[in-house]
Amino acid sequence: MIPETLKGDQFQMNINAVIFDLDNTLINRKLAFKQFSNRLIENYIIYLDSSEKNEIAQYIIEADNDGYRSKKELYQELLNNLKWKKETTLQELLEYWFSEFFKCTVLMDGAMEVIQFLRSQGLKLGLITNGSVHSQNSKIDYAGIRGFFDTIVVSDEVQVKKPDKRIFEITLERLGVKPETSFYIGDHPLNDIKGAREAGLRTVWLEGFREWDVVGFQPHYTIRELREMIKIFEGG
User: pTM, whole model, 2 decimals?
Assistant: First the structure.
């Protein structure tokens, strides 16, 4: 949905920066975690047939809560509830997570196309992500996108996380832009869209990963795939 007031050359001149979320926005975390879960099962977990393997994978995916759960809590639950090929410790599973998950990183369909297009328009690009410095930076580097961004802010690095508006303000300050001339795109209604709106940015919600569960406001734009960003910035 593209408001008439934001179409055309005037719209282009008023925008200086676009800031992205990482997980389930620039990279497909759902797909990556599915791949990781299958690797974990093959290496560590006992199963009888492909049907049971699929059930275990689905259980792990649901227990992970799309990454919004402590890894210690997650793997302690898995240790308690699954059958393991050998004696395994919580520490071993955490080390496996940190050494292997980023290798499953998959760019979102259209991500590179959108990044390159926005760069070609002379816009500054930023990235804000909640999570550990090691995990998030490893995914960014594995995806090969670091060089496209003018600044990357990881919550553990700055000790503040989305939806706190301060993490958006830190990013805007690093980019040297104002919130009213900046866009933010993400998949999470609360952490991404509400947080960015409260910091004064224009917002784009990438739907399809989470239900809209925040009352009282809406994103400025809603898209179903990243390539729709190009239409927005072309004013089409």
Answer: 0.90
Dig out the tokens for 20 from the structure.
Answer: 């992205």
With beta carbons less than 8 A apart as the criterion, state whether 170 and 160 touch.
yes
Beta pairing partners, 107:
27
Cβ atoms 174, 151 nearer than 8 A: yes
% the chain with pLDDT above 90 = 88
Angle at 194 between CA 171 and CA 28, to 5 degrees: 75
